[in-house]
Predict the 3D structure of the following.
Amino acid sequence: MLIGNARAVQALARSLQAGSRSGAYLLVGPERVGKATFANRLAQALNCDAEQPPCSGCSQCRRIASGIHADVQTVTVQPVEEGPQHKAIGVEQVREVERAVSLTPYEGRVRVVIFDPADEMTTQAQNAFLKTLEEPPPHVTFVLVASREERLLDTVRSRLKRIELGLVPTAEIEAALIQAGVERERVRLLARLARGRPGWALAAAQDPSLLGRRQEALRSARSLAAMSIADRMDAAERLHDELRRDRERVLDLLGEWQGWWRDVLLAQSGAEDGIANVDMLDALHDDARRYRRDEVTTFVQALIDARGYLEKNVQSRLVLEALALEAPRAGAAVA
Ligand SMILES: [Zn+2]
């Protein structure tokens, strides 16, 4: 089930109904907004037997949804030589895909190859893929899924039809959670904490460890602000170590920090409706009194900038040290 982004879905459905299928799409949007689901719906739309595709019910649609359709394939990252922990989509995988797509479809009308995450394709793999992209076989559609499209070569990007998925409004996520059978008392909190990413809300509804991780992140957000300069530098060092082990986890952590301080700003300006961390209002109000608004504003912007730099692997240690120093200081508040 795709949640939200009705406009992107309708635009695609219209163009397919008009018979204008592209040989290669670029599907972009933030993490966990539903890009993989959308790619699957696209594969269904191209192979569905019903009059109004995709119907979800025909044998083609059902086989695609179960991941057992012979003509729909997802290529994802695997360990590559560059480093023991580094995963990517490498040139060998592209060569395999090229061999596979030279065959006509086996059970459907269109072979669909989804690269997810395509922004983890090595430069070599992207270059190898160019020739196929210039002239995709007539019975093939490629779907490149990316949250960081700037990592794709311009030569690759220029050959793709771009579809953008955006963050989903809280109300639509709430409705989807209710439909998925999540208990009402958890719906409000999960939908807000999801910050526009229905995939996160659905995962957190099933996996309590995600909420536990968030609690931990909020504790560290608040404790950083109470630290001395020396302790902040130590904290930055620990984050830097963690970044090398598990980059996504650090980016998620900084995302939680940003959510917390954004909520503190909302509490300071009395805009309570927009608050995400609705289960921690007392702590939010404490911090709203404890910290100066200009310092919180600066730190929220610093978090946004830092995540951008870390995504691009720019000077990670310096970025984290500067960030730790920018956190609001307790005791600086005007009484
Ligand atoms: Zn169907």
